[in-house]
Amino acid sequence: MNTHSGRIALVTGSALGLGQAICVGLAERGATVIGFDLNNSAETGVLVTAAGAQWMGVEGDVSSPEAVASLFAAIDQRFGRLDVLVNNAGVFPYIRFEDMTLEQWRKVQSINVDGSFLMCKEAVPVMKRNNYGRIVNIVSCSVEGASRGYTAYKTSKLGLVGFTRGLSADVGDFGITVNAVSPSFTETPGNNVNNKTEKYTAIAQLQAIRRPAEPKDIVGAVLFTTSDDCHFVTGQTLYANGGLNYL
What we know:
- By secondary structure, the protein is α/β, with parallel strands linked by helices.
- It has one domain (8-237): NAD(P)-binding Rossmann-like Domain (Rossmann fold, 3-Layer(aba) Sandwich).
- It has helices at residues 17-28, 42-50, 65-78, 102-129, 151-171, 189-194, 197-204, 215-225; strands at 8-12, 32-37, 55-59, 84-87, 133-138, 176-183, 237-240.
- Strands 3-2-1-4-5-6-7 form a seven-stranded parallel sheet, with helices on both faces.
- β5 (133-138), α5 (151-171) and β6 form a beta-alpha-beta unit.
- α4 runs parallel beside α5.
- The chain is globular.
């Protein structure tokens, strides 16, 4: 079902994990996909083209105004428009609060919050030209509970929820929707580096669906919120968390 046929979609954090799965999901539904990541997204590009879609991969830092401006100049030159933006790039270092430096704090905020701001700052004028846009910010169900070592990360993701609500009001008159998708703990290469299998299992036991989430479990929520079907849903957070309950 080509629900995104003809759309131009940009996904940050596209090299691996959830970002890669989102790119492939969009490709399978007919979108042209642009990936933006600090790392090379060549593997994602292979999967996107195998799905029959056009691919453009760009390496760069979402927290760099210059890199983001350069990306959008390249998009404008090649495609002349942008229909979908998925702000997926993010970092989640484990740092106990008493050990955290201001530099570490600012790095998390600069990538997770400022990066989404910079991407939207460039995307909104482009989307307004065609009176159409779908912006999705990937947040996290972890903000609903208390866990040590992730104060900076939780702050950044709650900030994105507020950003989603605020921006939706500013762009609603221009055919642009802005929503957030909030996954539970998901098995990705990044999470596998920072966490152990026992944590996946423990969190899964708090869910109605008692298994760890995989990237493919989250993609459907992103596909809905980036589709034409989502024309009257905006400023919302869609939980893709297997019925997670921290209580």
